[in-house]
Amino acid sequence: MKSRIAPLALALATAMIALAGCSGAGSGDQVTLQFESWRPEDAAIWNSKIIPAFEKEHPDIKVQFSPTKATEYDAALKTRFQGGTAGDLITCRSGALNRENIKAGYLEPLKGLAGLSNFDELSQSFWASSEGDPYCVPVASVMAAFFYNKDIFKELNLQVPTTQAEFMSVLQAIKSNGKYVPLALGATPGDAWVLAFMGLYNEGPNYWHGEDGRQGLIDGTKKFTDPEFVEALDSLKSWTPYMPDGRASVTYSDATQLFALGKAAIFPSGSWDITAVTGTSGIDVGVFAPPLPQAGDQLYIQSHPDMGIGINAASKHKKQAQVFLDWVATSEFQTLYANALPGFFGMGKDAVKLDNPLAQAWSDLKTGAQLTPRLGQDILSGGNPDFEVTMENSLQLMMTTDKTAAEVADETQKGLEAWYPPQMK
């Protein structure tokens, strides 16, 4: 009996050691998370700075940054979701587009994720479901304002404008000099979004009083044909004499280059363009806030929730993806990200020290201002016809033809009334 038990015991011991070995190997196996993004231009920063910092703390998790061109991202991501090939980590648009992905069941609910405690409810709301449940960790917000060439202003003895009247006076002085394009802004149909994002949504909040106007459209107590919205459109229309010649064919890229090369004095744009206008040109760039309709008015600044990160509901590595999101929620990540990508501002509760002086100057514009997101990039763009598309097409015509501000307002309002219940009253 003794001789028969010994081999059995040995076999059992061997099996247990083998199982233990398998268990240990399994827990120590490296997992690679595929990370979807719409910003190929950020690949070097993610791959050389941000991802290595995460992997140093979590050597068993690798992250593969897999971006798609921004203009193709939404359609391509939907196709990959439907085909079961989407990555583990999903860069989330804010607002209506993200809610579509939530409704389709493509994103994993994040309720209970520890890192979300680092963000207030408002920040989380831009990536939440219609019921208010969180699905993405807030990563970055961006702002709209006006870059200006300090050397040109000094050469022409110009002061930074704070009111609409001063702004128009500065534009006229630059035009009269004849050496520089006053405003680096185009109006090509393919880039009509620029006229909304960097035009109307930039200076407009000072007219419709930020959230008062935006929420009024959402709850139906205001209409886009109300005076404050028409006045904002009229203000934008007044820019046309100061835009580049042939503005109907000037692209966003063309306008960026005009300013970056020192050929234009002012560039209405977003904080995300800090690197684009300073990276290679060597020009001395400053920033000023959207001019006020009247001196002493409250300042409103467009600060838009731009980017969040969520988890593919079909991912096989949800646990590891949650580890990554908890890290993204830390002040360590937010500081690293904001300084690696000047102009993208963290949304967490902790203050972030910015190393880039121009990025800090942008951030300083928020002092004393009331912040508001883009007017139509959320609930108002959730139907057919799309508020954004209708307005952008109308803006493009307004800035290149004799179409009036009142006509743009009327067309946009009729589009809302065609599908949005609060505007059908």
From TrEMBL:
Major place of residence: other
PROSITE patterns assigned: PROKAR_LIPOPROTEIN, SBP_BACTERIAL_1
Organism superkingdom: Bacteria
Keyword annotations: Signal, Transport
GO CC terms of this entry: cell envelope
Gene3D superfamilies linked to this entry: Periplasmic binding protein-like II
GO BP of this protein: transmembrane transport
Leader sequence segment: 1-20
Subcellular location: Cell envelope
Protein family according to the UniProt entry: Belongs to the bacterial solute-binding protein 1 family.
Job of this protein: Part of a binding-protein-dependent transport system for a sugar.
Name assigned to this protein: Probable sugar-binding periplasmic protein
Source organism (scientific name): Terrimesophilobacter mesophilus
